[in-house]
Amino acid sequence: MVFQLLATFLPRVYRMTLASFTIDYGNMLMGLVGGLAIFLFGMDLMTSTLKIVAGDRMKGLLAKLTTNRFKGVLTGAFITSVIQSSSVTTVLVVGFVSAGLMSLQQSIGVIMGRKSGRPLRHRSSLSRLQRLRWRLSLWDSC
Q1: Which of 34, 53, 84, 113 keeps 20 to 30 A from 21, CA to CA?
Q2: 72: domain range?
Q3: Model pTM score
Q4: Is the pLDDT reported for residue 126 higher than 60?
């Protein structure tokens, strides 16, 4: 009875019977390949659109913001804290590199800085009470 109820709520990837729990690898593989194809299509579309829209102006701005690795780290941290997603920052940087707007050396600093931007994002969104609770929990753990 319980297995039949669970089978109605689980996706088709998992096929449940009363005796065993089996995985339908065909559906899982098709979902994985389909998702990967859509992701790669989106990256290709973003790259070609960036080449058309951005041009030399965006390339100059990115060159100024990432002249050395330290500036690149600060740029990556700032972008991540504003966008609030390190994954989106990574996808943007990969798109900029594949569009020819950034070099690989420029992108390394931004990728390193995106990890620094995550704590900045979380700290800026805390209220005063949450900050106090956070400080007390750090003090309590010492």
Answers
A1: 34
A2: 55-142
A3: 0.58
A4: no
Please state, in angstroms and rounded to a whole number, the distance separating the CA atoms of residues 13 and 23. 6
Q: 114 and 47 share a domain?
A: no
Is the domain of 33 the same as that of 72?
no
- What separation, in Å, do the N-terminal and C-terminal C-alpha atoms of the chain show? 50
Q: What is the C-alpha separation between 39 and 87, in angstroms, rounded?
A: 13
The separation between CA 126 and the C-alpha centre of its own chain, rounded to angstroms, equals: 22
Q: What is the pLDDT of residues 7-48, one digit of tens each?
A: 565 555 555 555 566 778 888 899 899 999 998 888 888 778
Both 34 and 72 in one domain: the answer is no
Q: Are 22 and 15 in contact (CB under 8 A)?
A: yes
Could you give the number of structural domains in the chain?
Answer: 2
